[in-house]
Design goal:
By secondary structure, this protein is of the alpha/beta class. The protein has two domains: about 5-70, no CATH class; about 80-135 and about 150-205, Alpha-Beta Complex (Nucleoside Triphosphate Pyrophosphohydrolase). Helix content is about 25%, strand content about 35%. It is built from five helices and twelve strands. It has helices spanning about 40-45, 60-70, 110-120, 180-185, 195-205; strands spanning about 5, 10-15, 25-30, 55, 75-85, 85-95, 95-100, 100-105, 130, 135-140, 145-155, 170-180. Strands 1, 2, 3, 4, 5, 6, 7, 8, 9, 10, 11 and 12 form a twelve-stranded mixed sheet that branches. β6 and β7 (about 95-100) form a beta hairpin. The longest helix has 13 residues, at about 110-120. It starts with a strand and ends in a 7-residue tail after the last helix.
Amino acid sequence: MNKKIYYNNKFIGFNESIIQSSQNQTFKFYKKESDKTLKIIIKDFLNENNSDSIIMLNYDFEDVFDYLKKEFSYIEAAGGFIEKNTQFLFIHRLGKWDLPKGKLDKGETIENAAVRECEEECAVTNLKIIKQLASTFHIYPYKKSFAIKQTFWFYMKTDYSQKLIPQTEENIDEVLWFSEKEVRNKALLNTYLTIKDVVIETLDPINTGK
């Protein structure tokens, strides 16, 4: 299992194979039978002075995820990686290349939320969901504590050829179609680690075991 839970530029991983594809990372390793409780491990992980990622050698992802949902606020979001004729849609927000996504409305399905957010943030329509991708997980400061966000991702296609319009009230200043080469040589060099995971899963399915 290669699920990761991110906080800034580090992560909690559940498989040592992750190390091979993780550049500029140092690691700490924990086993259940150690004298450190999960609470202590998470507190150390969230320490701003600690840059180490964590490998949980014999922990179950769902157990750790359930613990975090109980300790922190749990937020669900959904978004899309959109293709049109071998070009891929990216938004530019707060200085980084990103993918359109947003929080679920009350009672909304993850599929409807993903399509709605893409339409709202980019003014793109005629979206067809091809498949669901792996969720991403990240922790961030929220109110006086933290939140754990799960983002449900979908690979979509469209034939939309009209002007793309960035949703400026969401701090988006640009929406562009990139070729695969531009994705790899431009977007992925200035984006979030969670977004890299989504893009690589789609573009390199053999290498990610999908």
